[in-house]
Amino acid sequence: MVEVANRSGYAGASVSTVIAQAGVSRPTFYEYFTDRDDCFRSSIEHVQQQLLTRITDALEGVPPHGALAHTVRALVEYACEEPVAARFLMGESMAGGSGALDTRDRAIAQIAAVVERAQQEASDGDVVPDLALAVALRSVYRMLATRLRRGELTISKLTDDLLAWLAAYDRPSCERRWQALTPGPAPARSPHVPDVPIQQSPSVLPPGRPRLPAREIAENHRLRILYATARLAEQKGYLATKVADITTLARIDGSAFYRHFADKQEAFSAVHELGFQHVMDVTAEAFFAPEGWPRRSWEAGRALTQLLQDNPLVAHVGFVEAYTVGSSAVQRIEDSHVAFVFFLQEGLVQRPESPPPSRVAMEAIVAAIFEIVYIKVRQPGEPEIAAMLPHVAHMWLTPFLGIEEADAFIDAQMRTEHEDEHQ
Length: 423
Hints:
Layout: H1 2-8, H2 15-22, H3 26-32, H4 36-58, H5 67-81, H6 83-90, H7 97-119, E1 127-129, H8 133-149, H9 158-167, E2 170-172, H10 214-235, H11 243-250, H12 254-260, H13 264-287, H14 293-310, H15 312-319, H16 327-345, H17 359-378, H18 389-401, H19 403-421
Antiparallel strand pairs: 1-2
Helix pairs in contact: 1-6, 4-5, 4-6, 4-7, 5-6, 5-8, 5-9, 6-8, 7-8, 8-17, 9-17, 10-11, 10-13, 10-15, 13-14, 13-15, 13-16, 14-18, 15-17, 16-17, 17-18, 18-19
């Protein structure tokens, strides 16, 4: 399963392909697994257990303040020594739908729990990174998965840059304030976020021959298809959704669907692309509105988190479901990381007396922000994405400003937001 999923993705990892790779019969497969998904999830658990054992051994005798650094070093070493297993666990496992994501999330939580137990032994004066462990580990997973997917041979070089990135969040253990993703107070409404949600379905055209230009009719159909596709991604997931489901929800016939899209993959890709364009447009507009990079960053983060809060379908498709759509969607996600690095580059001149964050560190910052959104989108109930603005700002600003200056800026902004809202 691991080898087939790495080669052909989850979609190509059929029972027939897996048993051919394994050299076993179909009855033998079903002696061990109820279906493909059971085998896929079991494979995640199997590889995760190997990795967890390695990390537990690596932390033996390590001082508490070094637990996260040694864990990250162990993750990179594992990716170098076991690239097939690591690629499956860190990357391809995200394509298996909700059940596989649950299994992967639990696996990362297990590692975070090991590190947390080690850090609990730290004295008040020990310096440790002040951030949510699950976010840090997920970011490293994402960084490694991208490079394993590309077949890079120099993954070991990531270690120093990743450790330097984490060290930027260091502070005495007793002073930590960011280790839990606790929602903050709701910030004031960003003027850059549209009042109308991005993805809402246009009205169904009246029966009979509508007196509208053909172009308007076609656009109406296309937008209804996109809305239905996004809604089904949230309700059923990409893997369980059929074209017939989309046409039923959109209230169009199959011929109208196929005039716009070749298949459901193309429709899902269009939804992701539309959402990404809106996210970038709103974030960029907010970023360039004020003066000064820290203030620009705050406004960009405020607009980004509020836009995603207002548009949960966009957040779900872009940050969760896109991985199941295929390699082209994964490539777009990775391209979006590169695009968001642009917003960080102005921060490189904030502290000329200090070494600036590396390119790897900036990629890790973006990955961490994406992971905060992912975690909130996957939680039951309404996602509290907008309330994560202080955490997003902490991840964004601290490596550039230093932890004390970044905290002071965030606190000042939150006071300003509170005063503005009550005036």
